[in-house]
Amino acid sequence: MSLLKTQIFSCRLFSTAVANSKPKIIDGFIGAIGNTPLIRLRKLSEETGSEVLGKAEFMNPGGSVKDRAALYVVKEAEEKGLITTGGTIIEGTAGNTGIGLAHVCRAKGYDCIIYMPNTQSQEKIDLLRMLGAKVYPVPAVPFEDPNNYNHQARRHAERIPNAVWTNQFDNVANRRAHYETTGPEIWEQTNGQIDGFTCSTGTGGTFAGVTRYLKEKNPNIKSFIADPPGSVLYSYFKSGGNLIERKGSSITEGIGQGRVTENLKEEINSIDDALFISDEKSIEMLYRLLDEEGFYIGASSALNVVAAYEMAKILGPGKTIVTAICDGAYRYQTRLFSRKWLESKNLVDAIPKHLQKYIIL
Ligand code: PMP
C-alpha cells in the first residue's frame, strides 16, 4: 500500500477514534461493555498490501467478545419478565459467555450457575468461581446427547424458581448484540470503507450479527466463515449444505460447531466463502502476533487473524479486512505456553524456531 493511502487511512482511523471515544465516566461494569478499538495489524497489513484489522474484543471489561452477548441475553430475560431481583441465570458455555454472565450477574444482583464441558481450561473454571458463579464441569458429549452441558443447564433452570436458561446458542438476542453494537462500531470505525469480514463461530452470534449489519449497509462486503478442525461449518458450506459428522478436534476453545444454530440459520446463505484453519497455522500466528505486535491473544483469535490474512490474500491488495480478536491468552496460558502441552498436541514444530523462546512453562 502506498504511503499516502496509509496516511489517509491513519487519519481516518484517528478521527473516528476521537469521534466515538467513550464518555469520560462510564456507569458501572455494564457501561464499559463494547466500543472496543479497531487495531491495525501492521506486519500482516504490510505483507498483504491490505488493511488487516482486529476488533479488540479482549478489551471488554470481562475480557472477551462474549460480554456483549451476556448483557443482551440477560437484558432480554428482564424485558420479558422471566427474571426478577434475586433470580438465577443458568447457562451452558465453553467459558467466556459464563464469565461475561458472572460479571453481569454480580453487577445486577443475580446468582449465576454455569455448566461447561470438562475439556476447558482450569483458568476459566477458577475465574468463574472467583466471580461467584457455581460451576459444573460435565463430560464433553455431543449436543444430541441429553447429558450435553446445554441440556443440563436447561433442566437445572426448569427445576428452580425465578431461574432462566439464557440459551446462548439458539437465543437470537446473542446475534442482536453484534447486530446492534459490534457491526455498527466496525462500520463507523472504518468509515464504511470495509471490504471483508471473517471470523469463526461458537454460537455464531458474532459472525451472523456483524455479517447481517455490514451486508445491509453494503451488500458487496464479503463475509467468510472460518472453521477449526472438528467443526462442520466449512464442509457444510463447501458441500452446499450437508451436515457431515464432526471429525478431529482443535486446540481452539469456544469455537467449532456441529450444527447450524438459530443464531446462524438466517445468515448461513450470506456466507461468501469458508476457510479451514489448522491448529498449526493458528498456533504459529499466536506466537507471531506476540513477537511482532506484542499481542497476547487466545487461540480462536489467532485463528481469526489467520483467516483475515488469508482473506486479504484472496481478495487482493488495497482492501480492508476486519476480524475479531476475541480474548486474551491469560485464560489458556498453562496450555498455550507449556512445552509439555504443546508436545502432547504435536504443535511445537508448528512454531518457528526463533519464536520457541516464548514457550516458558
Ligand atoms: N472465541 C472465543 C474465545 C469464545 O469463547 C467464543 C464464544 N464461545 C467465540 C470465539 C465465538 O463467538 P460466538 O459465540 O459469537 O460465535
From TrEMBL:
Pfam families (alphabetical): PALP
Compartments, record wording: Mitochondrion
Gene Ontology CC: mitochondrion
Cofactor section: pyridoxal 5'-phosphate
Keyword RNA-binding: no
CDD domains tied to this protein: CBS_like
Domain Tryptophan synthase beta chain-like PALP, residue spans: 32-327
Protein name, as recorded: Cysteine synthase 1
Organism, as annotated: Diversispora epigaea
Lineage, broadest ranks: Eukaryota, Fungi, Fungi incertae sedis, Mucoromycota, Glomeromycotina
